[in-house]
From TrEMBL:
<dbReference type="GO" id="GO:0005938">
    <property type="term" value="C:cell cortex"/>
</dbReference>
<dbReference type="Pfam" id="PF00595">
    <property type="entry name" value="PDZ"/>
</dbReference>
<dbReference type="InterPro" id="IPR036034">
    <property type="entry name" value="PDZ_sf"/>
</dbReference>
<feature type="region of interest" description="Disordered">
    <location>
        <begin position="22"/>
        <end position="48"/>
    </location>
</feature>
<dbReference type="InterPro" id="IPR019749">
    <property type="entry name" value="Band_41_domain"/>
</dbReference>
<dbReference type="Pfam" id="PF21989">
    <property type="entry name" value="RA_2"/>
</dbReference>
<dbReference type="GO" id="GO:0005886">
    <property type="term" value="C:plasma membrane"/>
</dbReference>
<dbReference type="InterPro" id="IPR019748">
    <property type="entry name" value="FERM_central"/>
</dbReference>
<dbReference type="InterPro" id="IPR014352">
    <property type="entry name" value="FERM/acyl-CoA-bd_prot_sf"/>
</dbReference>
<dbReference type="InterPro" id="IPR035963">
    <property type="entry name" value="FERM_2"/>
</dbReference>
<feature type="domain" description="PDZ">
    <location>
        <begin position="52"/>
        <end position="130"/>
    </location>
</feature>
<feature type="domain" description="FERM">
    <location>
        <begin position="176"/>
        <end position="349"/>
    </location>
</feature>
<dbReference type="InterPro" id="IPR029071">
    <property type="entry name" value="Ubiquitin-like_domsf"/>
</dbReference>
<dbReference type="Pfam" id="PF00373">
    <property type="entry name" value="FERM_M"/>
</dbReference>
<protein>
    <submittedName>
        <fullName>FERM and PDZ domain-containing protein 1</fullName>
    </submittedName>
</protein>
<dbReference type="InterPro" id="IPR000299">
    <property type="entry name" value="FERM_domain"/>
</dbReference>
<dbReference type="InterPro" id="IPR001478">
    <property type="entry name" value="PDZ"/>
</dbReference>
Length: 349
């Protein structure tokens, strides 16, 4: 008889796979009914758009806030939350040119060196896939339109810039502006007043992210240099008092699923948005090795496989992709934890 951990892992696999299939099917139906059918009724391939954006180097931290794949065919593998690139570039964007210079012959190491050595503003021309996979449940155009008619108590700031650049990873962006980190890589800034409570911000996020099962969520403080230390904030705490603690500059504020549902399958059925958030949080926790007991290699690898499958669908890639392709273009470290990579050979993975 399989042990309890293996049984739970398989159950989670089944739930995430069901979520992926439903997201993929819904996306496919939506595209077919709107734009993915030509006049003769045939399916059209996923569309791509070319974008050109300017990204300023963060003078405080000395980076542009992006990481790129290590070899040719440069892909952006991650965008730092709160960086100058946040909201302009996305993971999966393919870099075609930097400052009008084509990157087709540039390796990932050369690109990384260019980013380190450059100063000021760089212009990135990227190719972005605009269809072909499950869309994020966070802040769609429909949700934005709906929220315009449903004002909330806490004022909401998309980005706060001081002296021409974004602020670093801290509890406050500036006086009376709290920075909150989401599990999808976004950061949100909240202007708070003397009577603003933790619950006010949680309820604002409920509206902004269209979450129904808000009882599972809370705000927590995380030590910036020790991800294993978190402190749960009570709903009635005043934000002003939280940020006035003398050690507050050593923390950042996270919006997390803190009260795990008894049955995740029920959460998937009742609130797919909350389930997606829990899934993203789980992937992030495994990559950061933020768990109390040692995780079995087989469980971590199965979660990595699901994470890779979701990325493949989102980026409209062929369904069969080799591990070598993932290592070169996306970086295997974005799916498998550092300890596992150190202790397993590539062929074993």
């Amino acid at each position: 008889m399989e042990d309890l951990e293996t049984h739970k892992a398989r159950r989670i696999e089944q739930m995430v796979a069901k979520w992926l299939r439903r997201s993929r099917d819904n996306s496919a139906r939506g595209r077919a009914s709107v734009s993915d059918r030509s006049s003769d009724g045939s399916r059209q391939p996923p569309s791509h758009v070319k974008l050109t954006v300017d990204v300023q180097k963060d003078v405080l931290h000395g980076h542009y806030g992006i990481e790129v794949s290590r070899n040719f065919r440069l892909l952006i593998t991650s965008v730092a939350a709160g960086s100058t690139a946040d909201g302009k570039l996305l993971p999966g964007d393919r870099i075609l040119a930097i400052n009008d210079d084509a990157t087709e012959d540039l390796t990932g190491e050369q690109a990384a060196a260019l980013l380190r050595e450059s100063q000021g503003t760089l212009q990135f021309t990227v190719l972005r896939c605009t269809s072909g996979g499950p869309k994020s449940s966070f802040l769609t155009a429909e949700k934005r339109a709906r929220l315009k008619t449903n004002p909330v108590k806490v004022r909401f700031a998309e980005e706060v810039v001081v002296n021409g650049h974004n602020q670093g990873s801290s509890l406050l962006c500036m006086p009376n502006v709290l920075k909150v980190y989401l599990e999808n890589g976004q950061t949100k800034a909240f202007k708070f007043e003397a009577n603003t409570t933790v619950k006010d911000i949680v309820l604002t996020l409920k509206e902004k992210l269209s979450i129904q099962s808000i009882e599972h969520f809370a705000l927590v403080l995380e030590e910036q240099y020790n991800v294993l230390k978190m402190y749960l904030l009570h709903d009635d705490e005043l934000i002003g008092r939280v940020v006035q603690r003398k050690e507050s500059h050593n923390y950042r504020c996270l919006f997390r699923v803190c009260f795990i549902p008894r049955d995740p399958l029920h959460l998937l059925q009742e609130d797919p948005v909350a389930f997606e958030y829990l899934y993203l949080q789980s992937c992030s926790d495994v990559l950061q090795e933020r768990f109390a007991v040692e995780m079995k290699c087989s469980v971590a690898l199965r979660l990595a496989a699901l994470h890779i499958q979701e990325r493949i669908i989102t980026c409209a890639q062929p369904q069969k992709i080799s591990l070598k392709y993932i290592e070169k273009d996306w970086g295997i470290e974005n799916f498998i934890s550092p300890t596992l990579l150190r202790n397993m050979r590539g062929k074993d993975i």
